[in-house]
Structure to design on (67 residues):
């Protein structure tokens, strides 16, 4: 969020349980509704192929948020 305020495109990649924390933090920073990319929890247990598949799922949304 601070990067975007400085003119640097940014987004946040989070897992589902952290949506409320990110929304609360964004509101406190004066950016309610700040965008994020939400993926299923947990990610730590995914193997390399699983992480690649997850990255492919959010890649278009990430590009859209960064441009």
């Amino acid at each position: 969020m601070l990067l975007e305020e400085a003119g640097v495109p940014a987004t946040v990649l989070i897992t589902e349980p952290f949506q409320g924390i990110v929304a609360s933090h964004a509101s406190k920073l004066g950016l309610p509704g700040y965008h994020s990319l939400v993926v299923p929890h947990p990610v730590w247990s995914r193997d390399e192929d699983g992480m690649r598949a997850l990255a492919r799922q959010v890649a278009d949304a990430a590009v859209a948020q960064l441009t």
